[in-house]
Design a protein that fits this description.
Order of helices and strands: HHEEHHHHHH
Helix content: over 70%
Strand content: under 5%
Organism: Rhizobium subbaraonis
Strand order of the largest sheet: 1-2
GO molecular function: DNA binding; DNA-binding transcription factor activity
Oligomer: single chain
Keywords: DNA-binding, Transcription, Transcription regulation
Shape: globular
Protein name: DNA-binding GntR family transcriptional regulator
Number of domains: 2
Radius of gyration: 19 Å
Number of helices: 8
């Protein structure tokens, strides 16, 4: 994709497009090649594991990162999110589940008063979650949707107990399980590709 094509598609000048592409390149999501344009990078398993490992550790720290005292707005947002997510168990919609995941991330960022923590956590979320989204349609849909429902429910229970630290641990456990499913799929997919190539 070129800056010119993207600028035309979104009806804006090339300058903001260039800035966004530079940010994406700094995060390792795209690679810019002269006379070619920007290319979306492939997922590097080691880099993905490293990013997930940091995300897991950071989620454990949520309760220590200047937690906010008013949990009500977060609980209200999750109360809205939960039925939307439950509806997806029987109605597969990858885009809708991704949107719920993004909204959950945004809501949970509101639990910390530490701006640096929020910035780093959010950057890692978007860096890691793309691997999940690329394979989501090929995973067991019911399992994935129910896992998201379960996470939202467990977070709500923790918030009702006024326990932000527990919210971080719930998030941590779900991130670990998501990473496990991603790695199982990718390693299995790589093995099948290798077997097919050997035939």
């Amino acid at each position: 994709m070129s800056e010119t094509e993207l600028a035309k598609k979104y009806g804006m000048s090339r300058t903001p497009i260039r800035r966004v592409l530079q940010m994406l390149e700094a995060e390792g999501l795209v690679e810019t090649k002269p006379n070619v344009g920007s290319i979306v990078t492939t997922v590097d398993l080691k880099s993905l594991r490293d990013a997930f490992a940091l995300r897991i550790r950071l989620s454990e720290l949520l309760g220590d990162m200047s937690p906010v005292s008013d949990l009500y707005p977060v609980m209200m947002a999750l109360d809205e999110l939960l039925p939307e997510c439950k509806a997806l168990v029987e109605r597969p919609d990858v885009g809708a589940l991704c949107a719920i995941s993004h909204r959950l991330q945004d809501v949970l960022l509101g639990l910390s008063g530490n701006s640096e923590y929020r910035t780093v956590t959010d950057a890692l979320y978007y860096k890691t979650i793309r691997a999940y989204y690329t394979i989501l349609a090929e995973l067991d849909w019911r399992m994935e949707a129910e896992a998201q429902v379960e996470e939202i429910h467990e977070i709500l229970v923790s918030l009702q107990a006024n326990d932000v630290r527990a919210v971080g641990l719930v998030r941590r456990n779900h991130i670990v399980r998501t990473l496990s499913r991603i790695m199982s799929f990718m390693v299995g997919d790589a093995l099948h590709s290798g077997e097919a190539g050997a035939c």
